Amino acid sequence: MFQYFLIYKPFGMLSQFTHEGDHATLADLDFDFPKDVYPVGRLDADSEGLLLLTNDNALKTKLLEPRFKHKRTYYVQVEGQATQQACNAMSAGVVISINGKKYQTLPAKVTLLEEPELPERNPPIRFRKNIPTSWISVILHEGKNRQVRKMTAAVNFPTLRLARWAIGDISLADCPVNISPGIVWELAPAEITRLLR
Question: What is the pTM of this model?
Answer without folding.
Answer: 0.93
